[in-house]
Amino acid sequence: MGFFDRFTKSFDDEVNEALEKIRNMGLGVEDLSAIVQDKIVTLKGRVPSMDIKSKVMEVFNQLVETDNTLNLLEIPPPPAKEPEPEAVIEEETAPVEQIYEVVSGDTLGAIAKRFYGNAGQYMKIFEANRDILDDPNLIKVGQKLRIPE
Questions:
Q1: What is the average pLDDT score of the chain?
Q2: pLDDT value of position 81
Q3: Which of 3, 72, 112, 127 is exposed most, by the fewest CB atoms within 10 A?
Q4: Number of folded domains in the chain?
Q5: Which residues, 6+ apart, have CB-to-CB distance to 36 below 8 Å?
Q6: Is the confidence at residue 88, as pLDDT, over 70?
Q7: pLDDT class for 31, splitting at 50, 70, 90?
Q8: pTM above 0.90, yes or no
Q9: With left for phi above 0 and alpha for psi between -120 and 50, is residue 24 left, alpha or beta?
Q10: Is residue 69 located within the same domain as residue 105?
């Protein structure tokens, strides 16, 4: 463009050329447009960041002499992130245990058979009651035994 070409171009042409140059700068500007009223220009469009918004204004004002340039360039909000799956926290519940009172003729094997369906599980009952039992073969009538789940 020659020195005198600037004086022969209309103001609208200058604005349009500046917009085209900015579009071709690879700044990520979308839908860049201008509303011109006399020598007041309102820039519209979407830009990816505040830095780019400032850069567009700076370049435009270097290329076009206006009475005022209004900046209505928008920075879209970042895309909504999908919520992180919440960790499932399983509440630890205390194992359910029952209390059984020993009656005459009981053995740990017989009690295990009653509660677990298997007499061989008697050691489970013995281990749960180590505080009151010393020997799995020696239980007494009236003892209250914990029967773990």
A1: 88
A2: 78
A3: 3
A4: 2
A5: 11, 12, 15
A6: no
A7: very high
A8: no
A9: alpha
A10: no
Specify if 89 maps to a domain.
Answer: no
Residue-wise pLDDT for 40-72, tens only, equals 999 999 999 999 999 999 999 999 999 999 999
User: Which residues, in sequence order, are CB contacts of 4 under 8 Å at separation 6+?
Assistant: none
- The reply to whether 15 and 57 lie within a common domain is yes
* CA dihedral sign, ordered 15, 18, 19, 20: positive
Q: What is the DSSP letter of 82?
A: P
Q: How many CB atoms lie within 10 A of CB 15?
A: 23
Q: At 44, which helix (H) or strand (E)?
A: strand 40-46
The pair of three-digit structure tokens given for residue 33, joined into one six-digit string: 């447009």
Domain that holds residue 101: 97-148
The structure tokens listed for 116 are 């677990």
DSSP SS3 for 121: helix
The closest alpha carbon to 99, from 133, 137, 142, belongs to: 142
Q: Any residues with CB less than 8 A from the CB of 108 and at least 6 apart, and which?
A: 122, 123, 125, 126, 136, 137, 139
Each residue's pLDDT tens digit, 119-137: 999 999 999 999 999 999 9
